C-alpha cells in the first residue's frame, strides 16, 4: 500500500531540511513525497533539488503561484497516487522512523478510512523543548461540537475519501483543515480510529497578540464550518474549544501526562 506525504512550502529554507530528513528516515519504503512550493525566494528550491536524487524517483515537486496554503494542499492531493495521504507542514517533523509504518499497518489491520494520533508542540528553534502535548482519544459522537477534533498533522486518510467527499475548502483562509475533518467525520461518517502514539513535532512561535487574533479568527471560521455542513453547535462552542487547549498546556507545564 502506497502512502503519499504532502508538504507545502514558501520560503521554508530554515526548517525544510529537518522535515525532509524525517520523511527520508521512515522505515516504510512505499512512500511518495510531494512538495508544493509557492515560488519561494530563499533557498527552498535549492534544498529540494539537493534532496531529490536521494529519493530515487519517489519525490515529486512543483513551484508555482497558488491561492494560499489550502489551495497548495489541494494541488498536492490531486498529484498524489498513494492509497493513503498525510500532510506534513514544512516546519514539522515525524517523531521517529516508524510513524508511517505504524500508520499503514493500523489502517490495514483495522480496515478503516483514516487514522490519527498524538502531537507535540515544540519551540520554533528547539525541537526538544515541548510547549504543549496534544494527546488525542477515540472519536466521541458529535465530538466536534464539544471541542474535540484530531490534530490535523496526525490525520492520515485514504485518497478515495478526498475524491468522494471533497478537498480543502479554500474559502476558509484559516481552519480549512478543521472544516475538512468535520465534514469527513461528522457529515459523511467515515470510519476513523485513534492510535495512542505520538507522530509529529510541530513548531510554534510568534507574538501572544498575534495568537489571540488567530484564536478569534479561528473561532469565527470554525463556527462557519458547522454552518456550512448543517451541523448545529452551541453558542458556547468557542469556550468548549478553548478548554482542551488550556488543559493540554497545563499538562505539559506540570508534566501531567
From TrEMBL:
Annotated InterPro entries: Glyco_trans_2-like, Nucleotide-diphossugar_trans
Keyword Transferase: yes
Protein name: Putative glycosyltransferase
SUPFAM superfamilies given in the database record: Nucleotide-diphospho-sugar transferases
Claim: Glycosyltransferase is one of the keywords in the record: yes
Enzyme Commission no: 2.4.-.-
Organism for this UniProt entry: termite gut metagenome
Pfam families from the UniProt entry: Glycos_transf_2 (PF00535)
Molecular function per GO: hexosyltransferase activity
Domain Glycosyltransferase 2-like: 4-130
Keyword line: Glycosyltransferase, Transferase
